[in-house]
Amino acid sequence: MKNYLLILRDHEERWERFSPDEMQQTIEKFVAWNKSLSDDGRFIGAGKLTSDLGTTVRSQDGDLVVDGPFSEAKEAIAGYFAIRAESIEEAEGLAKGCPILTYGGSVEVRELGHCTGAD
Amino acid sequence: MPDEASVKLFVDAFFREKWRDIIVVLTRRFGPQHLDDIENAVQTAMVRALDTWPLAGIPDNPGGWIFTVAKNHMLDRLRKLKRAADTVPAITDMLYPNDNDTPEWAGPLEDDTLRMILVCCHPRLTARESIAITLRLICGLGTQDIAGALLIGDDAARKLLYRTKDKIRRRRFPFELPEPDEQAARLNRVLQIIYLLFNEGYAARTGDDLTRNDLCAEAQRLADLLLRSQMAEKGSVWALAALMAFQASRLPARVDGEGRLLRLQEQDRSRWDRRQIALGFDLLDHSMSSSERSRYHLEAAIAACHAAAETYDDTDWPRIRGFYDDLMALVPSPVVELNRSVAVMMTDGPAAGLTVLQTLEDAPALKDSYLLPALQGDFEARAGRPDLAERHYRDALDKSENSPVRAFLADQISACSIG
Hints:
Chain A is an alpha+beta fold. Chain A has helices at about 20-40, 90-95; strands at about 1-10, 45-50, 55-60, 65, 75-85, 105-110.
């Protein structure tokens, strides 16, 4: 088994017109998906990336400039899931169950390489 | 894919009830003049929950979590307002609540919910404004659903809601229970709004479905809220709830498998919802405990007669006719008279029914309704005059925009030419 990182992206304003019922249904869908990953032993962890805090540091003509946190203004990283899967194809398959896709968001699947300091 | 229904973290309508409760508590605290900010604060808190909980996990006390975020958001907003207008003492008072407030600002919610409903159904709002703002604040429906309920576009619904909140703010509607002498009138307005909402669902005016059961359910929920407030002592509230339960019991039987409209005489009565009927009789019993006899008492009694009849032929038409006569005496209107004509026709024959209908031909309230010509067509057909019946049915067809109704009328027209 390898470890994969699922990066969830969505539009920030997406939820704003949801009714309370729709919000409840959405949260329940996510919890169900999360539970199915856990039940299959695929789930490692998940986290939220707060969208309004963060910067990007990059070099421009020798100077370091600090930019906003997002590469694209419209689609922000909402958070991530770390999962286990046999292959990138299988990880993709699992990512396809992510409820964010039914709301117009996207999921990027990345294999996690060896990380120094990690066990 | 997992079975989504197997993960039930919240009771049904948990968010919706929290939505209403938090709006009510914040409105009690800050007043209806801040409704727009209050609604924003609760929406923001719920969006944050939606943004956070799926990834970071659900907190132990989800309702408290949402409330705290909403309250803090509201306080932040008020601090900004205070900075903008530092001389306003009222805002300072709000920011530093006195010691009587418990930390959660908790208290019995029932009567505050009633206060909120009274604000939403204030007589100085139009029926449309009241329905929209009630569906939003009390029922927790989204703008899109409200647009659907009122048959307007999303943008129009958003503007309508905004305008209504603005009206409430500018006219300073108080968040309090009316004086006893004013209470009956205010309650009547609330009942009227609930009834309008129910009717909107019971007989959709346009579209492809005959009924909009979701709106009927909202109306029944609203009546239920009133029954949990001090308004429960008013018999008319019970009577309206009874009426809606009887009417709702027939929702599953009003259309056949193909979505075609079925009249009372054609409905499969085994499909009537027995729980709603039992509820209706219970509520009607309660409504009789005071001496008050409202229009809802009479309408519920009529609906009860239909519910009690095992077959169409068992219907006690003389009794129904009597209730309609009383109703016409209590609240005379062309719409009541239109309905009474059916009871008259059933007791005294088609000619008597047609005479009643004739008096309604110039009524402005019925000018655009398909119901008058449709009944005229039915009565003429029963009187053995298919040619006249067909003419009325054609007139009715021109006036209806609802697909099942139109299909029904087209069937009647072809029956006339065959007959």
